Amino acid sequence: MRKLFSTTIISLFCVGAFAQTTLTLQDHALKIGESCTYRDMQYVDPGNSGPNQVWDYSQIQLTEMNKVTSFQPITSDKTQNNANANLSILDDGYDYLMRLTDNSLEEVGYINKTKNMTMVYSDPVLKMKYPFSYGDHYSDAFTGVAMFNDNYRIDFTGEHSFHADAYGTLIMPNNLILENTMRVKSVKKGVQVNPCGHVNVSIVKYAWYAEGYRYPVLILSIVENKYPNLLTPEITKTASVYFPQNNTFTKNSLPINSGITVKNKTNTGVSVNVFPNPFSDKITYNYFLKNDLPVSISLYDITGKHNQIIANNQSQNAGFHSGEIGGLKHALPAGVYYLRFIFGEHVLVQKFVKLEAQ
Q1: Sequence-distant contacts of 237-240: CB under 8 A, at least 24 apart
Q2: Is the pLDDT of residue 159 over 80?
Q3: Global pTM value
Q4: Domain CATH number, residue 342
């Protein structure tokens, strides 16, 4: 019995997203002649969905393994059975044949010369629809036939869905915080039928897209194969990162500050003082607003979950403001936490360490 479905599903390189704004063909679709070099890392939990998330992956362990995915023009020898293809993606031995239009990206087939395998979709796999924004969700059925050595046939059918399900702050290694980051969740479920029987396959991918980047900076993947004769499914989890890319970090990329003061790099004139750090019982903060602004303040744990919402889009006058978050001595376990300040459209994040309660 051959595994096909789980090893030939293209990664979410084919999906682009841009913070909380709209995905466009011009700024976020694949570009012929470019390539992505992803570095493997340890798998981490993808966290929650929804707005204003904080994903802290600053302590992830990277490996020395790199994988390059390149985007090439289509050639005539690849279009014999996939005449609609106009873009080729070379990834891990597979040559994925894509069709890019003004409003969508589809996978129409693929080739693996080493395995002497070809794949043709009678109903292509929809990978993206343009425009695409936070909260958008699409699903699409697909049907295809793969041939090994021209005589071993595998039929498979299923559904592919993708959902821009979260946005917030992505904290990466090298002391980098990426604001205005959008997560795209992709789920591909189906059945592959071959002469030996059938396999139920589920592939879940999470991809994070930071402002100013065409391609995702972080990808998590969970592949599950269920065989009729096995009680326990086979599960494979992988993760990889891609930074820096050709695009430079934008004004909303903020470095982690290990001290007690975070200064806004977007030149809004807002600075925040928070102390003590580490903390035990309570946190005190103050800031000065040059103009009237809506202000939100939230406390998160290391998984990105809310522990407290201190202010929620509260209108505040220009001037000096201060406050404290008390009662934390026994309310929170020891660990790493974050205070997130949103001043209008600008975000500041401060990392804290909670000490053991005495």
Answers
A1: 237/43, 238/40, 238/43, 239/40, 239/41, 239/42, 239/43, 239/44, 239/60, 240/38, 240/39, 240/40, 240/41, 240/67
A2: yes
A3: 0.68
A4: 2.60.40.1930
